[in-house]
Write a structure and sequence with these properties.
By secondary structure, this protein is an alpha/beta fold. Helix content is 20%, strand content 22%. The radius of gyration is 28 Å and the shape is elongated. Beta-D-glucopyranose is lined by residues 23, 25, 90, 92, 143, 402-403, 406, 408, 450-451.
């Protein structure tokens, strides 16, 4: 097969289809709580209009823990290891808006989310899946919905409109509402309609009548008009749309939907990939660029000319292509990591042998499915990365949209009043079709209807979790991470302190850090830096940081860091200082310099600030005994916590390293004391 082919050959179409069917979901959680973003809840509630959108809703927020899922998970042996994780609420039929059979409806969930936000004293992301398009699930049967292909009017008036009315209630204005818009449908139009080898009659109908496109446009416009709603459209997964011949058309159809029915691209905050699917977050043992004896991994049976090997590379590329197509440059991606962990005994420890490209890929791949087109209740899968905010540039969060333990579809026909059909991709004895390249389905046996609790699958996901979880039937991890080291203040203003530290290590991996100001937990973050805001000028603070792992083990505290914020007046009184600058070494491309700060006032300083403007392109790369910010050629250095006080007539100093090219002129310094 030539890589440049326009359409995928029939053999690889299956991969495409994985998509179609996939209907997994769950959502994720982010952690960080930032002092700066702790809105007074009463204020936020009373002023709906005040809830301006932030770039990434997961940063500085907690994520709603669905009490119904949490209780089901906690009732499973070992389930309490993960039952406090946030998962998405699914609106999969009109009746779900008010609650089905006594379960919580949308308002009940939103009320609970507001309560969680108030209890935690921080904003909360509420994740909701909007999933009831006419003629839903056109290439599979397990999640067929209640609305027929032409019932777009009911979709608008009985589904989207009532949801929008509830979400717009000022009582929920303090929440950050993240929607996952209509999984599977738009991708199905790309690969399973209009003359493709895997086209189905229902997908052809939906392509012809346009109701997926107009329905998604309507949902985006209606929900996007609510200021605290963040819309993320489903964008399949790499094993569905990762072929060149699928990706461009997918971006096109998503753009078409995003500009239909009154919607504009401004109604879209991003896209979600791998929703309710099993594609690996990262394949650690091979990349798309690897070759074996001159043969590209793209030619392996598993990769089959796909352009991507995992969701991380796919999500980033998808984002770039969407921006190039006219979506906002600030869009972010979500990745559903609820069930793509692939740990357990079957996980390869390293790359496969380089005896052939197939041996190399099959020996090393962590995704143990028979084929990437398989999507139903996959045997051998595990829980993936725990929900996490801003794990990488361009990725807004890892989320658990598909609630782990909820079935993808029944393994045999089951009578029901939910509109759900029987799809043989959920039958473990099924030998496949064109959409999975005629492989076995890989589905677990004895599965209930889609969305119903499937205890055996939950146990399997716990057992094979990666990163592993404690108490999941495997070994319980009780090893705490090492304490973070190297805690420093990288900048301080009269109202904020920026901290950075060195990553801690752990036997199964550090998942995040807790930042304490004195005894108060001010942030939980997956990053190794944090800015603590809302502080008072000329005040001493003490910080420590602890590391956490996936099993909940917490490290000892780092060494404490004392920081005194500078005075807000920038000097004044009788305080005064001078600063001298000396280049101590210069090797042409870089240099080190020392700055001496001398108190010329009559009394001790509380803090000091030295500023200058470089004449050339000098860039400070590291600085000790002070906190530096550089903006273009302008540099500001504030005292560290321990050297702000200089006795009258006394001196202190700081040093730094910098890079440059051209001339290295000594700048003129300005010193201000408080
Ligand atoms: C089902 C939905 C369910 C969702 C979450 C889907 O496969 O069709 O009814 O809410 O999964 O588990």
């Amino acid at each position: 097969m030539a890589p440049g082919r326009v359409r995928p050959p029939p053999e690889r179409i299956p991969s495409v289809s994985a998509q179609l069917l996939s209907r997994l979901r769950t959502a994720a959680a982010a952690v960080a709580l930032s002092a700066a973003s702790v809105l007074p809840i009463a204020t936020a509630q009373s002023a709906h209009a005040a809830a301006a959108r932030v770039d990434n809703p997961y940063v500085g927020a907690g994520v709603y823990v669905n009490p119904e899922w949490s209780a089901r998970a906690a009732a499973e042996p070992g389930g309490t290891a993960v039952s406090d994780q946030p998962t998405a609420v699914w609106l999969d039929r009109i009746a779900a808006i008010n609650g089905v059979n006594g379960s919580m409806g949308l308002r009940a969930h939103l009320n609970a989310a507001v309560a969680q936000s108030q209890a935690a004293g921080r904003p909360v992301v509420f994740q909701v899946v909007v999933y009831d398009l006419p003629g839903r699930d056109c290439a599979a049967l397990a999640s067929n919905g209640e609305l027929g292909p032409t019932e777009i009017g009911r979709y608008r008036s009985e589904f989207i409109d009532p949801i929008a009315t509830i979400l717009a209630d000022p009582a929920y204005a303090s929440l950050r509402i993240v929607t996952t818009i209509e999984i599977d449908s738009l991708p199905n139009l790309v690969t399973n309609a209009g003359g493709t080898a895997t086209a189905t009659p229902q997908c052809d109908t939906m392509k012809a009548n346009g109701n997926y496109v107009t329905g998604v446009g309507y949902a985006l416009a209606k929900l996007g008009a609510i200021p605290n709603v963040y819309n993320y459209i489903d964008a399949g997964h790499h094993g569905w749309l990762g072929w060149d011949s699928n990706l461009g058309p997918a971006v096109d159809v998503l753009k078409q939907a995003a500009t239909a029915s009154g919607s504009t691209v401004a109604d879209v905050q991003g896209f979600i990939v791998n929703t309710a699917n099993y594609s690996a977050l990262k394949e650690p043992n091979f990349t798309i660029d690897d070759t074996v004896n001159g043969t590209s991994v793209r030619q392996s049976k598993w990769v089959d000319w796909n352009r991507y090997v995992d969701e991380t590379t796919y999500a980033k590329a998808f984002r770039d292509k969407a921006v190039a197509a006219g979506f906002d440059a600030n869009i972010g991606m979500l990745i559903d990591t609820s069930r793509n962990g692939w740990g357990g005994a079957g996980r390869p420890a390293g790359p496969g042998p380089k005896t052939s490209v197939d041996a190399y890929v099959d020996g090393g791949r962590i995704d143990r499915r028979f084929q990437t087109g398989n999507w139903c209740n996959q045997s051998g899968a595990g829980l993936g990365e725990r929900p996490k905010a801003a794990p990488e540039a361009g990725i807004d969060a890892y989320v658990w949209v598909k609630p782990p333990g909820e079935s993808d579809g029944a393994s045999s026909a089951v009578a029901n009043d939910e509109g759900k059909g029987f799809d043989r991709m959920c039958d473990p004895t099924y030998t496949g079709n064109a959409r999975n390249n005629n492989n076995m389905s890989g589905a677990l046996p004895n599965a209930p209807l889609a969305g119903h609790w499937f205890s055996a699958q939950f146990q399997e996901l716990l057992k094979n979790a990666y990163p592993p979880v404690g108490g999941g039937g495997g070994t319980t991890d009780t090893t705490a991470p090492t304490a973070p080291t190297g805690l420093t203040a990288t900048a301080a203003t009269s109202s904020s302190v920026s901290l950075a530290w060195t990553a801690a290590t752990d036997n199964v991996g550090v998942t995040g850090y807790d930042v304490y100001r004195g005894a108060t937990l001010v942030a939980s973050t997956s990053a190794t830096s944090y800015t603590d805001s809302g502080l008072s000028a000329a005040t001493a603070y003490s910080y420590t940081v602890r590391a956490r792992d996936a099993a909940g083990n917490v490290s000892a505290a780092s060494a404490a860091l004392a920081v005194t914020t500078p005075g807000s007046g920038g000097g004044g009184g009788s305080a005064g200082c001078t600063a001298t600058y000396r280049i101590s070494s210069d090797w042409g491309a870089g240099f080190n310099a020392d700055v001496t700060v001398t108190n010329t006032g009559a009394s001790a300083t509380k803090g000091w600030k030295v500023t200058w403007t470089f004449a050339g392109n000098q860039q400070v790369t590291n600085l000790w005994n002070g906190a530096v910010t550089q903006s273009g050629s302008a540099v500001t250095v504030l005292n560290a916590g321990y050297n702000g006080a200089i006795a009258a007539g006394g001196s202190t100093g700081f040093g730094f390293g910098a890079s440059y090219s051209g001339a290295n002129t000594v700048p003129t310094l300005t010193c201000t004391a408080s």
